[in-house]
Design brief:
Layout: E1 6-11, E2 17-22, H1 33-48, E3 54-58, E4 63-65, H2 70-73, H3 78-83, H4 92-95, E5 100-104, E6 107-109, H5 111-118, E7 121-125, E8 129-131, H6 145-153, H7 155-164, E9 168-169, H8 170-175, E10 181-183, H9 188-200, H10 204-219, H11 222-236, H12 240-250
Parallel strand pairs: 2-3, 3-5, 4-6, 5-7, 6-8, 7-10
Antiparallel strand pairs: 1-2, 8-9
Helix pairs in contact: 6-7, 10-11
Bound molecules: hexanoyl-coenzyme A.
């Protein structure tokens, strides 16, 4: 059945970038269970779709997503959230092998910001606002907020964000390393798609290796990370695309990737 709370299309000159638009405008894209399972299903199938080289997730100009659906959670209790694995389907965004870009306008709050931070790259519109307001409703971030803010922006700033619930402007998010670039509101999605197209022009196989290697920097010690990187680098020499890339350079032509 077609999703109701997200829209998925293939965009870009070669239609090789998937654009997922969170589309529950009346609730500022609050991430209810249905929206999250539609997002999760879409990501899983796009990850397997060989015509897609990169994925962009966006919301509306008013809100990327204002967080998990508070009204849906109000009557939850510990036992059922624990045994029912509440939020288990939230991790899909961080499990996708292809590059995922968040194009953020408006509010990226609570779980909305956590989804953005699960993406590989964040582009923001000038009026975007990031934050973890959970503390104001008697809970804490549950999909990575306390961990990913620290890794991106350091402990002191992460503490401020998580303990006050204050919103962070796009410009400050960029200065803190959460966001890589800031654009005028109406250009963010277009720029994110262009970035997706640029990445999709590379070998999908090698892009996947590069993403995996960068992500290891979050999880391993420097020594282990460097070792992992070196081994994957060696492994590129077992691919046709590595041979093609270097041959094409020497022959002054564009490489033809086979993902082999
Ligand atoms: C359910 C929400 C919502 C949310 C907004 N809405 N955010 N519904 N869950 N997270 C609904 C409002 O109830 C309202 O519905 C409509 O969207 C428009 O919102 P308003 O509040 O009227 O808009 P505005 O005055 O512009 O304020 C925008 C806002 C505010 C600052 C973003 O909506 C807000 O503070 N939202 C909650 C933000 C938040 O606390 N997020 C964290 C959630 S907890 P009606 O029907 O009245 O028109 C979380 C936990 C993560 O994310 C844990 C891991 C997943």
């Amino acid at each position: 059945t077609a999703p109701e709370m997200i829209k998925v299309e293939k965009v870009g000159e070669k239609k090789n970038v998937a654009l997922i638009k969170l589309n529950r405008p009346k609730a500022l894209n609050a991430l209810c269970d249905q929206l999250m399972s539609e997002l999760s299903d879409a990501l899983r199938s796009l990850d397997l779709d060989t015509s897609v080289g990169a994925i962009v997730i966006t919301g509306s100009e008013r809100a990327f997503a204002a967080g998990a659906d508070i009204k849906e959670m109000t009557d939850n209790e510990f036992a059922s959230t624990f045994s029912g694995r509440f939020l288990e389907n939230w991790t899909t965004v961080s499990e996708v092998k292809k590059p995922v870009i968040a194009a953020v306008n408006g509010f990226a709050l609570g779980g909305g910001n956590e989804i953005a931070m699960m993406c590989d790259i964040i582009y923001a519109g000038e009026k975007a606002r990031f934050g973890q307001p959970e503390i104001k409703i008697g809970t804490i971030p549950g999909a990575g907020g306390t961990q990913r803010w620290v890794r991106a922006a350091g402990k002191s700033f992460a503490m401020e964000v998580c303990l006050t619930g204050d919103q962070v402007t796009a410009q400050e998010a960029k200065e803190r390393g959460i966001v890589s670039k800031v654009f005028p509101v109406d250009q963010v999605v277009g720029e994110a798609v262009k970035l997706g197209e640029k990445i999709a022009d590379q070998s999908p196989l090698i892009v996947q290796m590069a993403k995996e290697a960068v992500n290891k920097a979050y999880e391993l010690t420097l020594q282990e990370g460097l070792h992992f990187e070196r081994r994957l680098f060696h492994a590129t020499f077992a691919t046709k695309d590595r041979k093609e890339g270097m041959t094409a350079f020497a022959e002054k032509r564009k490489p033809q990737w086979e993902s082999k």
